[in-house]
Specification:
By secondary structure, the chain is of the alpha/beta class.
């Protein structure tokens, strides 16, 4: 199995790409691709992409970000696994390659280029700045894309739930508002990333501090008795924002993503988070125990947002 790499160098609103137009026997003849190539023996993918970019374009890549993995299965060629990188951290003067002509292409124009059909799938994900993708592409003997499989990421699955929620709320004529602490505004973002969200979302606030929670409606006595990290406070956050925005649905989140809070050492345990949803006269508040070791804060936020999506669906169906 062949292992290869490709890197998309980013300069403001442009990507550096190559038109493969200089070799007659090039399998990529007249196609637009990123810079990169095959890994040599005992060479890691990162070492490979740094070498390839230097050889092809005279550019020194200082750091790269792994954006995804693409597996090519072909009736003509050896199966290939390609590591897809991007970088905006590089130096040097761009030179031309003997494999093709290198251009700076505006991001908005990239999908109109003569790309491989399968490349369009993962390049579009790059342009949307998706965190990570795992794509399998199958080509027939005529180099036509016969089949493709895109592994759904955690973020894509959560985003799909919020797209469904926006449609459901719009259909029912309901409106939501959010008061977020641990999720830092992610839930508001997930809602408003969907077309038509202005019809269903009144607004949101990020009340990261205890004082902010009190300022916008959480009872100080509840915090004193139950701690700022509790189902009770999450519920009061949801109730308060629902009242503040006169919405049908209120959302509240609180909890600990990192080090314990010295003011609440007994209740601020990393990975113990709380979420609540109030919909009309119904409400639900939950405690979530999220394994926090070796995961990012973003992943933790997504798990909380997913729980909130499930509660909204449960209370509003």
């Amino acid at each position: 199995m062949k292992v290869s790499t490709v890197c998309y160098l980013m300069m403001d609103d442009y990507y550096i790409m190559m038109l493969r137009n200089k070799k007659e026997d090039d399998p990529n003849k007249d196609k637009w691709i990123g810079l990169g190539g095959k890994c040599e023996e005992n060479e890691s993918p990162v070492e490979c992409i740094i070498r390839e970019v230097k050889e092809e374009a005279g550019i020194t890549v200082n750091s790269v970000k792994l954006r995804g993995i693409v597996t090519f299965i072909s009736e003509k060629f050896e199966t290939e696994v390609m590591f897809v990188y991007s970088s905006d951290d590089f130096t040097g003067i761009l030179k031309q390659s003997d494999e093709g002509t290198i251009y700076k292409i505006k991001k908005s124009n990239i999908l109109s280029l003569n790309l491989w059909e399968g490349d369009r799938i993962f390049v579009e994900k790059l342009l949307k700045n998706e965190d990570f993708f795992n794509v399998t592409l199958k080509y027939d003997s005529e180099d036509r894309l016969a089949d493709s499989f895109v592994e759904v990421t955690e973020e894509e699955a959560v985003r799909a739930k919020y797209a469904t929620i926006v449609s459901m709320l719009k259909e029912k004529g309901l409106h939501a508002a959010s008061m977020e602490s641990i999720t830092g505004g992610l839930i508001a973002s997930l809602i408003t990333d969907n077309e038509g969200s202005s019809d269903v979302f009144y607004g949101g606030m990020t009340t990261y501090s205890t004082g902010a929670k009190i300022k916008y409606g959480v009872n100080p006595q509840t915090i004193s008795e139950k701690s700022v990290y509790s189902k009770e406070v999450a519920l009061e956050m949801a109730c308060a924002v629902k009242a503040d925005f006169a919405s049908d649905i209120g959302i509240g989140t609180t909890g600990t993503a990192g080090n314990p809070d010295p003011m609440y050492p007994e209740t601020s345990k990393c990975g113990e988070v709380y979420a609540a949803v109030v919909a009309g006269t119904q409400s639900k508040a939950v405690k979530l125990d999220i394994p926090y070791k070796n995961i990012s804060r973003n992943f933790m936020k997504l798990k909380i947002a997913e729980a909130v999506a499930d509660m909204i669906t449960e209370l509003c169906l």
